[in-house]
Specification:
It contains eight helices and nine strands. By secondary structure, it is of the alpha+beta class.
């Protein structure tokens, strides 16, 4: 037998084949992994593009949980906006400005929009907020449409439209029936004042710029998102310091639909405020500073713990 044989032993061939097969298997596995990751990334981009371009149907408000509405306050001069958002101390409120009131009750839109009807509604709000708000809702819808230069805005208000009043059963009264009822009550009261020497004419001072309830806002403003548009929420505590009290951050994680809806809104309504309303009560607000394509929000510097916790609970309670 030669000292250095040219033949390869079967054992060596088997070992060599094992090494080659392992190398081929590793390369194949690596290629499959790269292909899967590439398909996942490409598929995700395609899915995102479809979501971000999708035209969504308008959302109905969620009166029992969270509704996020837009108040269309883009203009720099806040007093010339329809609504004005005011945040002071630990509270947030939305006011209907004088400009907004004038859009609701223009003098040239017919008898239903007579400013005196607005005065009547303000008087009703002072006595029975639920009835007054229900009467004001169609006027705010018409005013917003007029403010946005939508054609035929006045069609939002008709004399025979039923006015649904929270907590009242049976056939709802029409707008004109309520206006006549409270107009008559006002006339009787003014007559009694005259007979008692209280002076002639109405002494009612109509103040615009007063707070508008969240339950009214969700029924009249564009609804951006509701609880179903968020996957989860969490409360993050920012400890107190020598310069500031304890504050809170609410982190809201968006669903794909929520992300898409908000992206489209922020693209068309940059520099406008959005208002967070839980069970008909305004909790906080923020301004859309830029177009945002994000999977989650942080609402920072919330001062009221109860309001922050209500936001979190409104999202999480139906996700269990």
């Amino acid at each position: 037998m030669p000292l250095f044989s040219n033949e390869v032993t079967p054992e060596y061939q088997a070992a060599e084949r094992v090494v080659i097969m392992r190398e081929r298997g590793t390369r194949a596995l690596l290629l499959v992994t790269i292909s899967v990751i590439t398909l996942w990334l490409v598929g995700g981009q395609i899915r995102d593009r479809i979501l971000l371009q999708k035209q969504w149907e308008p959302l109905a408000f969620d009166s029992e949980n969270l509704s996020v509405v837009g108040v269309l306050d883009r203009r720099g001069d806040y007093d010339h906006n329809f609504f004005k958002v005011i945040q002071s101390n630990k509270t947030t409120r939305v006011e209907l400005t004088n400009t907004g009131w004038d859009y609701c009750f223009p003098t040239d839109a017919g008898p239903l929009f007579d400013p005196q009807n607005g005065d009547i509604i303000k008087g009703v709000q002072a006595v029975d907020g639920k009835v007054g708000d229900a009467m004001l809702i169609p006027y705010i819808k018409a005013g917003l449409a007029r403010y946005r230069q939508i054609l035929n805005a006045s069609a939002q208000v008709t004399a025979d439209m039923p006015i649904e009043i929270e907590g009242q059963r049976g056939k709802p009264p029409t707008l004109v029936e309520l206006l006549r009822k409270y107009q008559e009550q006002r006339r009787i009261k003014e007559k009694a004042n005259e007979e008692e020497g209280g002076g002639g004419g109405s002494t009612t001072s109509v103040e615009h710029g007063t707070a508008i309830a969240g339950s009214l806002l969700i029924r009249s403003c564009p609804v951006l998102l509701t609880s179903k548009c968020f996957s989860s929420a969490e409360l993050i505590v920012q400890p107190a310091s020598a310069l500031a009290d304890e504050m809170y951050t609410v982190r809201l994680n968006l669903t794909p639909e929520g992300r898409s809806r908000f992206y489209r809104w922020s693209k068309e309504h940059e520099n406008e405020s959005i208002v967070f309303i839980v069970k008909g009560s305004v909790k906080t607000a923020g301004r859309v500073a830029q177009v945002l394509d994000v999977n989650w929000w942080d609402i920072n510097n919330v001062r009221d713990k109860e309001s922050a916790q209500m936001l979190v609970d409104a999202v999480n309670q139906n996700k269990k």
